Amino acid sequence: MAGKGDAIMTYQEALEQISSQAKFGIKPGLERIIKLLDKMGNPQNRLKFVHVAGTNGKGSTCALLSSVLTAAGYKTGLYISPYILEFRERMQICGQMIPKEELAALTEELLPLIQEMEQDGDALTEFEFITALAMEWFARSKCDVVVLEVGLGGRFDATNIIGTPLVSVIMSISLDHTGILGDTVEKIAFEKAGIIKEGGDTVVFSRQDYGAMQVLREAAQQRNNSFCVAEPEEMEQVESDLLGTRFVYRGTQMHMPLIGEHQVLNAATVLAALDVLRKKGFELPLQAVAQGFAQVSFPARLELLSKHPVFLLDGAHNPNGVQALAAALRQYLSGKRITAIMGMLADKDSHASIGYLNGLLDQVYTLTPDNPRAMQAEEFAALWREMGVSAKAAQSPRQAVELALAHAGSDGAVIVCGSLYLAAEIRPVAIEILKGMAPSA
Question: Which cofactor does it need (predicted)?
Fold first, then answer.
């Protein structure tokens, strides 16, 4: 593709153009993205990748990997979805989001190719468009390595147009997106295993369903991959509280501002992937690992917005994620009165999810997440009431936060969960309201 021109398109226009592709929905398959990247000169072929798939834990793992590689001095691209606060979070280099003017210029440059494909009957989805933009930006920026998060599944995901990555990382697998990926963990594992490429190296999260692990192991064997199950045995003296997790690894003290037992297992997976990268010539001293872990920033993953009252924001949105959240609530908030603000998408298994939280919550305020697939707040509140939990539908994020804080009192706790879309809506409102209250330090 040609070099950068002067952007006439504004950032806002670029966002509108990108989101206009959403009307083409989710269309698994690589034909369209292959065709587009070919027209662009295949920028992905100029890059090296760490490819990360899984139902839960992908985001935290990508954030940790990117933070460590950046701390070690590598120019590191990061591609994630969905975003929490701002669209540009989806593509970052060394922790910095793509500048607005660069995103606008790239969008304008790609637009003729997108329109040409649409006229040929090959309309790209929103995710394919964003993936192509990211590949071009990372290639032009001459990234040393890109941490690439799968959008959905693996085999037919737009990110899977890359060749053999430096390492394929597969996180916790459970039932989610069953309409697209399959109705058993084995079928879903088969889709995720699509990122395991010939002659590569595969690292997998240790707590997998037996059937899922067998599928991953077989795929790695068939494609001549080394296969590492990332046990946390080298992580010693593990301690965790609301402020984060501390442990000793190979004699070095580490701390990360991520909490919950699942984050210890995610960290173990990251450490195993870093070992693979070391074998491939990456210099990753333990001090850089410690620095990367300490500096990691990841909104809406058991994120502590306030200590008095405790206000936690979490993106848990499927049964597996909510189960991990419930374990964390038992560990950190035992004895506290917990008030929840919740909303879910209608295509998630809400019955199973709320089952894990039943008995932990004193009061629930429901909201309708800002997404066309959202379950209505009143319908969700009714589900809770059927379980014998007091629940009311709130009219707005602001009202939900105010009601929850009033109900929790200064000694209680508020937890926001059920949807990343909901977390994105609540976060700025909660920060503003909490700022206006007594200091929470």
Answer: Mg(2+)
